[in-house]
Amino acid sequence: MERVAFLIDSSGERVDCLLNPETVQVTRLAGVRHRGASGGQLTGSGLADDPLVFTGGGRTELVLDLLFDVDFVEAQVRPADVRVLTRPLWMLAENSTAEHGWLRPPLVRLVWGKTWNVPGVIIAVAERFDAFTGTGSPRRSWLRLKLVRAAETADQAEAGFAEELAAASTPTAAPGSAVIAAGDGAAEPGRSGVRFDLLANDALGSPLRWRLLAEHNRITDPLAVPAGTTLAVPPPAGTRAGGVPGSGSTFAGAVAGMARTVAGAVSAGASFVGASIAGSTGPGNPGPGSTGPGNPGGTP
């Protein structure tokens, strides 16, 4: 199992977490502010809302809740104080890097498997300790960390996403076969508990390709797919849905379209890759104005 880690760009040092987080909260703040003047904020009696100024840019924040416990350390000699394990993360929020004569926190990358690679700066770390020893040393820490994403160009984002897709592992299911949706996640109202990312990893070799699997099976809401549903595995790259080689709507073309869509969304400030991919074209989801199955509103 791959664990969450932070890579320090300047030194290449890797800071590993003891356990993976149960949840990751991603927040996007758009580049919008209230329009003002020298005398203060502009208002008007005939306006339902305050006038806004669109400044561009914005801010993307990731919050991780991490658990550290000395009893979980897989080593012959365990530390007596959990702060020995969490101090490297604290240091990532210290002003330890110099830039243009000013000190600042180091630029890091949040990496987790093949689906998370986020450059940014850690701006806040907070800990809650418990399980104290008789001498007052904490043995367990509940740590919350906030990372603000650093700016990337659209070309960098497209190249990075395409590289992640290309690094897919060998699928366990053969092309043209089928996979069974299993309830690996927690079922709740509106969600069946089916992990579509795990299905995509089995069928296509990468969890990032979940959208291609959904489009191939004409699924608009992967969260609502009932457990036990049989899903067809898309054909390999370079073949059409019927298995005939050709240059039509190919699997590889869909992947390239996904990368372009994500790159455009990142440059516009999108914070979650899944939402960006939703509008991309691919098998079963032809572009506007195209004809055939999957485009009931197209021209006959």
What are the main properties of this structure?
single chain; 300 residues; alpha+beta; two-stranded antiparallel ribbon; globular; disordered C terminus
Task: Write the SSE topology.
Blueprint: E1 5-8, E2 14-16, E3 24-34, E4 36-37, E5 40-41, E6 52-69, H1 83-91, E7 97-99, E8 102-104, E9 108-112, E10 116-132, E11 138-149, H2 154-166, E12 178-180, H3 196-204, H4 210-216, E13 230-232, H5 251-268, H6 273-277
Antiparallel strand pairs: 1-2, 1-9, 3-6, 4-5, 6-11, 7-8, 9-10, 10-11, 12-13
Helix pairs in contact: 2-5, 3-4
Pfam families: CIS_tube
Domain Contractile injection system tube protein N-terminal: 11-157
Protein name: Contractile injection system tube protein N-terminal domain-containing protein
Report Rg.
Answer: 23 Å
Count of individual domains: 2
Helical content band: 10-25%
Q: Which structural class do you get from the secondary structure elements?
A: alpha+beta
Order of helices and strands: EEEEEEHEEEEEHEHHEHH
The count of β-strands is: 13
Low-confidence stretches: 239-252, 261-300
Name the overall outline.
Answer: globular
The biggest beta sheet reads: 7 strands, antiparallel
Q: Proportion of β residues?
A: 25-35%
Measure the end-to-end span: 50 Å
Summed up, the helix count is 6
List the strand order in the largest sheet: 2-1-9-10-11-6-3
Mean pLDDT: 73
Structure description:
With 300 residues, the chain is α+β, with helices and mostly antiparallel strands. It has two domains: 5-30 and 55-151, no CATH class; 163-277, no CATH class. The protein is 20% helix and 29% strand. The protein has six helices and 13 strands. The protein has helices at residues 83-91, 154-166, 196-204, 210-216, 251-268, 273-277; strands spanning 5-8, 14-16, 24-34, 36-37, 40-41, 52-69, 97-99, 102-104, 108-112, 116-132, 138-149, 178-180, 230-232. The strands form four sheets. It has a seven-stranded antiparallel sheet with strand order 2-1-9-10-11-6-3, covered by helices on one side. It has a two-stranded antiparallel sheet with strand order 4-5. The longest helix has 18 residues, at 251-268. The model is unreliable at 239-252 and 261-300 (pLDDT under 50). Residues 279-300 are annotated as: Disordered. It comes from Micromonospora parathelypteridis.
